[in-house]
Every structure is written in structure tokens, then in C-alpha cells.
Amino acid sequence: MDLIYWKDTERTGMVFTGLVVGLLSLFQLSIITVVSTISLGVMCFTVSVSIYYKILQVLNMGDGVHPFKAYLDLEMSFSGELADQYTQKAIVTVVSAANSLKNLFLVGNLFDSLKLLALMYLVTFLGDLCNGLTVLIIAVITLFSLPLFYRQHQAKVDSFFAGIQAKVDNVKDILHRIAQGGGPAPDPTPGGAKPKTQ
């Protein structure tokens, strides 16, 4: 979340630039070439820095501390309890997604299945316009742009989407009444009791 909200501008800039440049490289090169080239660049940098510090130590101009000691000492492990917790969450998510897809594709709810049908139809047009890599690059740029934009203009954005939501709810209510035979609008008062007129 700190990366997305640009709390550390330098760190976020490095991650964002690396992701975009890496994805753009895939337009011209294979993923194997991109990964191997990036790995080669990182290795050249780390080996050069390590040799430089070794030379300083030999010339008695350095303290002999490994340049990447702070990163080497980082603990990267999961406790058994934490691993079980993440595993259970992953299983619940997969099962829930499978149930949702089953209901959508096997028409468990006609309205939801029709919405998916319309969405997939629109996605076919998107597939004609661009490939998955382009969509992924747009998604990365959006991920690093929209949260910050929303945070800076939250009131205006909330007001705009509240208006849209009201219109969508109105259309859904009309379609629901049509599906039920075109009856009158439901009584908004609790229990259907009509308010007394003065």
C-alpha cells in the first residue's frame, strides 16, 4: 500500500519504472530473454559492488562489512500457523471462485449469467483492439495512478459514483419489475403500510 500511495517516492518510482520497462520489453523480446537480461544486470551490479568493497578492505580503506549485509540478514520465513492461515484463505478463495463460476456458466441466476455474457461479448472487442500484455501494462499504470488520484479527490469521486449508482439501481428496479410482470413500484414504507395523509 505504501508503494501504491507513493509514500516513498524514490522506491515507488523504481518499482513502477521497472515494471513498466520490463513489460514493454516483452513486446520485442521473449520473457526468457527479459528475465535473463535483468538477472545479468543485477548480478553485474552486485558482483561489482562486492569486489569494490573487497578492494577497499585490502587497501585498509574500508571496514570490511559486506555491502549487502542488511539484506542478507533479513529473515524470510513463515511460521507454521501463518502458513496454515494463508493456505486456508487460498483454498476458501479458490472454492468460492469455482462456485461463482459454476453458478454463472450453468445459469444459476439468469440475470447474473446474462451480465457475464454481455461482459464476455465486450471483452471480445477488447481482444481485437489489443493483446493481454497491453492490458497488463495499462493495469500496472492504473494501479499506481488511481489510488493516489482517489485519495486527492475523494469527495468529488464519491459524489460522482453515488449518482451513477442511483441511476443503476433505478434501472435494475425497472428491469426487476418488468421481469415480475410489470407490477407497481414497491412500497418504500416498512411492512408495506401506507403513510397517513393529513
Shape, per Cα inertia axes: elongated
Low-confidence stretches: none
Number of strands: 0
What class do helices, strands and sheet pairing give? Answer: mainly alpha
State the distance separating the first and last CA atoms. Answer: 56 Å
Major sheet attributes = none
**SS element count, helices:** 7
Mean pLDDT equals 82
Membrane topology: Multi-pass membrane protein
Keywords: Endoplasmic reticulum, Membrane, Transmembrane, Transmembrane helix
Protein name: Reticulon
Pfam families: Reticulon
Write a concise keyword list for the protein shown above.
single chain, 198 residues, mainly alpha, 0% strand, Reticulon, membrane, transmembrane helix, transmembrane
Protein architecture, described:
It is a single chain. The longest helix has 28 residues, at 31-58. With 198 residues, the chain is mainly alpha-helical. Helix content is 72%, strand content 0%. It is built from seven helices and no strands. Keywords: Endoplasmic reticulum, Membrane, Transmembrane, Transmembrane helix. Residues 1-198 form the Reticulon domain. InterPro entries: Reticulon, RTN1-4. Pfam families: Reticulon.
Put the structure in a nutshell.
The chain has 198 residues and is mainly alpha-helical. It contains 7 helices and no strands.
Write the layout of secondary structure elements.
Blueprint: H1 9-25, H2 31-58, H3 69-72, H4 80-105, H5 110-129, H6 132-152, H7 154-179
InterPro entries: Reticulon, RTN1-4
Pfam family, one: Reticulon
Domain Reticulon: 1-198
